Amino acid sequence: MSPWQGGRFGDRAECVLAPNADFMTLDGTNTWVLREPGARRSVVIDPGPLDEGHLDAVAEAAGEVGVVLLTHHHHDHAEAARAFAERMRCGVRALDPAYQLGDEGLGDGDVVEVDGLEVRVVGTPGHTADSLSFLLTAEQAVLTGDTVLGRGTTVVAHPDGQLGAYLDSLDRLHALAESHEVTRILPGHGPLIGDALATLDYYIAHRRERLGQVEEAVARLAAADHPEGIAVDELPRRVVEMVYADVDPVLWGAAELSVRAQLAYLTERGGLL
Q1: pLDDT in the model for residue 272
Q2: Between the N and C ends of the chain, which has fewer C-beta atoms within 10 Å?
Q3: pLDDT at 271
């Protein structure tokens, strides 16, 4: 498989890949530049980290920018938003007011229109409380930030992220794919996904499977002989060691965030702990 390098997709989307690859960001952050064919201004989504070389590349691809949009507040997506917008003399629209530049926020149901390009905002909380996705109807595509990745699965970043909200968001995206409003996913990390419905089927099934594994791990730990008991703060790591035994330990810190979200979800719904 060739490494992901970004590039142009369809008539309206171009990915400029940020040079911040690591085990959490995959190949790096995808900064998406959207423009209606023949239009003067563009929309830039997630300018990414504060890296001058990357921002120069984004500026070259974007030309005149009408607005910067943010999928969520995480550093690898949003750090450069204000500096880039000031450079391009435009605003930043985000759900979190701390990241906005200008008078306009952003929320579920909003429609952003720039020189004929239409972007519909879909609230998809769960990875973070402020996570948004952007529906590019003309391309039957959705830009998902970290809600759906181009490879692997995402972290529910507890306590800001909530599993119940995340499952609802996956269902919402699945409904868009099932109705054929969306056929492709343009993620915040990793390659474009050509079969949105199959990927969302997998994401939902995987999350349900992991939830069952966590529930089983807690039951096994409770049934074992622990003379001193298991401290509440120790439980998530013990569950990670059981459920994610086949995963590189370098990822266990991220897995623990998701396990904490899963434990909170199970507790809320069934008094698990």
Answers
A1: 60
A2: N
A3: 53
The answer to whether 132 and 142 are in contact (CB under 8 A) is: no
Residue 59 and residue 175: Cα distance in Å, rounded? 35
Statement: the pTM of the whole predicted model exceeds 0.70: yes
Assign residue 249 a region (left: φ > 0; alpha: ψ between -120 and 50; beta: otherwise): alpha
Angle formed at CA 162 by CA 158 and CA 168, multiple of 5 degrees: 155
Q: How far apart (Å, rounded) are the C-alpha atoms in residues 80 and 85?
A: 8
Residues annotated as catalytic (active site), given as ranges: 76
Which residues pair with residue 45 across a beta bridge?
32, 69
> pLDDT at position 227, please?
44
Dihedral class, residue 229 (left if φ above 0, else alpha if ψ from -120 to 50, else beta): left
Q: Is residue 149 within 8 Å of residue 187, measured between CB atoms? A: yes
pLDDT, tens digit, for every residue of 182-214? 999 999 999 999 999 999 999 999 999 999 999
